Amino acid sequence: MEVNMDAKADKGSSSLVKAHWEKVVIVIALLFMLGFKYVPPFEGLTPLAMEILGVFIGAMIFWLAISISWPSILVMVALMLSPLYSFGQVISMSIGTWVVSFVLFTTALCYVLRQVGFFKRLAIWFLTRKIVSRSAWAFITMLSISSIIVGSFMSQLTIFLIFVPIVIAVFDELGYEKGDRVPMLIVICLLLFTTYANFTTPIAKVMPVMAMTLYTRFTGGLEISFVQYMAVGIPMTIVIFIVVMLFLRLTFKADFSKMENLDTEFLRRDIGPMGRKERICAIVFFCVVFLWLAPGVFQQFGLFPKFAALVASLGAPTPPMLGIVALCLIQDEGKPIVEVDELLSKGVAWSVFLMVGATALLGDAITNSEVGITDWIGARLAPMLSTLPPIICVLLILTVAIIFTNFASDMVTVVLLCSISIPMILSGGLTGINPAALTYLIGQASTVGPATAVGSASAAIASGDGYLQPVPMFIWGMILSLLTGVLMTFLGYPLANLIMG
């Protein structure tokens, strides 16, 4: 009883300390956001630049240490109070952008497919192929491939949450315990390769889409298309996957005897026949994917030009919007397949919605020519970076992105690195680098965070389930993350430069 009371007291004390710490952080962030404009300008900066720089620093502190939800609203208000924007401009350039609508309706549609069990069915289909029973590495390879393929159509966290119960069921079936090396390897692979799913398509991929939004802002309207994204991402992912799997096969040693003649048919126990509701959701989803990809593919080969132009004019958010409307109209057993109230309350990540909008607006403010922050930063970094070969600059930027993501925040990584590097390239301060290619790679590198619990939500879950201890998680996570960064630089960048040039 006394031990229990002591534990409660310690927990209460810890919560109190955390609450006080958060108050201190909030005050510091507010001082930057609202008071930095009163600081005498640094050499080369104007009072307006100091104001915007203060909002930027305050936003980074809030997003990193407090939350991404209400601070995003505060960012919009702070920029509304600046001389740069009116209320209407703030709304249209933040939550009124196409990217925010794309994230909103895509995540909602993916929520529906997850609820009906389609993605889980797809994952188990991969893991019950006969080839899986040949060896432990056959199982690990198929698990990794399936996590990338299924994850191409949903967020990294969602696919991780689908696969974790499946692999834990395999561990239990084979008698593995927490701390054993084989489960550790499997969880590491799952962590890493679910990040690779971000490389393949922009569907429900917040960080890469955020990077693309910033690129559009910085270039005055240029866009990275779905077809370009996938034309780079799919071959790059295949090659990087093969290299990383060979590296693991040669370097990771463990006793795989329990996985000999593994029979995964037991995973089918909880999967019944595909029902009408699930079939309809899957058909609607693949129709949405077709509408996303058709304009770029048809235009590339000169097919159905009028249809391609019409679909392209709808914009990326329209197909998932149409998909959701269709699922609201179609009924199953006398009820609509999608209930809008449930979808809006459970299927939409409103905090992400706000954060993506605030990021788009903040990126525009930082790079505004009247402000001059990017010119100021570029003038100080360009002399150092201009002496390096372009490919080494790319390697340096991606390495910083990966390290920062593993120890801080993926979202802060995207905003910070894109806001510094892309304007430098466009202004001529950094030459020989394709801004579209680098933007794509920064967006991908910001998702590679398997080394620490703060690197991603998936890593936080993995560190708490007991199968992956913090030390091996950090060692293997950092080695594989940095290896991925090197491969992205020397394989991904030349390909992206060719396709996005």
Task: Give the SSE layout.
Layout: H1 2-35, H2 47-65, H3 70-80, H4 87-93, H5 98-116, H6 118-127, H7 136-151, H8 156-174, H9 181-200, H10 206-219, H11 226-251, H12 276-301, H13 305-314, H14 318-329, E1 331-332, E2 335-336, H15 340-346, H16 350-367, H17 373-385, H18 390-407, H19 410-426, H20 435-445, H21 457-464, H22 470-500
Helix pairs in contact: 1-2, 2-3, 3-4, 3-16, 5-12, 5-14, 5-16, 6-7, 6-8, 7-9, 8-9, 9-11, 10-16, 10-19, 10-20, 11-22, 12-13, 12-14, 17-19, 18-19, 18-20, 18-22, 19-20, 20-22
What does this protein structure show overall?
By secondary structure, the chain is mostly helical. Among the domains are: 68 residues, no CATH class; 247 residues, no CATH class. The chain contains 22 helices and two strands. Strands 1-2 form a two-stranded antiparallel sheet. Helix 9 runs antiparallel to helix 11, helix 10 runs antiparallel to helix 20 and helix 20 runs antiparallel to helix 22. The chain is globular. The model has no long low-confidence stretch (mean pLDDT 87).
Number of strands: 2
Structural class by helix and strand composition = mainly alpha
How much of the sequence lies in strands comes to under 5%
Could you give a short account of the major beta sheet?
Answer: 2 strands, antiparallel
The global form is globular
Termini gap: 68 Å
Helix content: over 70%
Low-confidence stretches: none
The average pLDDT value, as a whole number, equals 87
What's the helix-strand series? HHHHHHHHHHHHHHEEHHHHHHHH
